[in-house]
Specification:
- This protein is an alpha+beta fold and 317 residues long.
- Helix content is 26%, strand content 21%.
- It is built from 6 helices and 14 strands.
């Protein structure tokens, strides 16, 4: 069973989940996510699959949010796997917009279900892609974690957005989007409802943030046409990424929504893409300065990388 341990120097929880050491590592001859494995239906499209090695679960010791030196508490929450397709070798860049729309609908439904659970404070859909990221199963999939606390970077971002709104009476994200559109040099792609851009102070090579044009705090507030536009943009971005160097780009994709409990109108729904490939043959490693000091060294200039991605055709590789 997992547990949370308080890190007094960083003032954050660490999830201790030693049972995850036993999860399979890129098996070549068997996949639990494939039809016929006995673990999933023989016929499915997009599927929510309970994580076999959850770091957080509802089967936990009681959660106590109070910190303390050498404090432990229950790792309450949830960990789901989202299977994008029954096709084992299909990369996310080859999902159709219609398939991405089904993934979006599943995200939205599951966020709503998890948000009402006791102790769940933040729900985060995400995806890890590529062996260089540390993916353990090659089948196209993402995950959804429900945390009993705000993860540290989420808490920091929420605090910045809340303070800006209190000070300026405006949405921080809306102001960023307005300036990115006005400058244009970092915009990669856009449609009626969404704009994809490399942020001014991007930390990762080819990092993209995908913002809703309209101020919405979560997926559930999107109109049907906006959800369609989001699916289309996800398809475009993923194709551009895999066509940038001609191979599956190792990356993390993170869906940012408002916290599960309370009123958080200062939050603006967006999706982050964090690739670690800095050139065709070089990876971005998070070494001492990034990992121990928390200061990122950017190896690429956002304006130049945005121009490169703009001209990269979003066609099926």
């Amino acid at each position: 069973m997992s547990e949370l341990r308080w890190h007094p120097l960083l003032e954050q929880w660490v999830v201790v989940a030693s049972h995850r050491q036993d999860r399979p590592q890129m098996p070549a001859d068997w996949c639990p996510f494939c039809p016929g494995s006995g673990r999933v239906p023989d016929d499915y499209d997009v599927l929510l699959y309970p994580n076999d090695f959850p770091a957080l679960s509802q089967d936990c010791e009681p959660y106590d949010s109070a910190p303390g030196l050498f404090k432990t508490t229950g790792a309450c929450g949830a960990c789901d796997v989202v299977l994008y397709s029954p096709k084992h070798t299909l990369p996310p860049s080859q999902l159709t917009p219609e398939q991405w729309r089904k993934v979006i609908d599943l995200w939205s439904k599951r966020i709503a279900e998890l948000s009402v659970l006791p102790h769940v404070e933040y729900v985060m859909p995400f995806e890890n892609t590529g062996e260089a990221i540390g993916v353990t199963m090659p089948h196209p999939h993402g995950q959804i974690y429900a945390f009993p606390f705000y993860p540290p970077l989420v808490e920091k971002e929420l605090g910045a957005a809340r303070r800006f709104e209190q000070r300026e009476k405006k949405c921080l994200y809306c102001e960023i989007l307005k300036r990115e559109i006005a400058q244009g040099s970092r915009v990669v792609a856009e449609n009626r409802s969404f704009v994809a851009f490399i942020p001014f102070a991007a930390r990762f090579p080819s990092e993209i943030q995908l913002y809703a044009r309209r101020h919405v705090v979560s997926l559930s507030e999107l109109q049907p046409n906006e959800a369609d536009d989001l699916a289309s943009m996800l398809s475009v971005i993923r194709k551009k990424y895999d066509n940038l160097y001609g191979f599956l780009l190792p990356l993390m994709m993170v869906v940012r929504v408002a916290p599960a409990k309370g009123d958080h109108r200062y939050v603006h729904f967006h999706i982050e893409f964090l690739p670690i490939q800095r050139s065709a043959k070089k990876l971005k490693y998070l070494a001492a300065v990034e990992t121990a000091a928390g200061t990122f060294l950017a190896d690429t200039r956002p304006e130049e990388r945005a121009a490169e991605l703009r001209k990269t055709e979003p066609v099926t590789p």
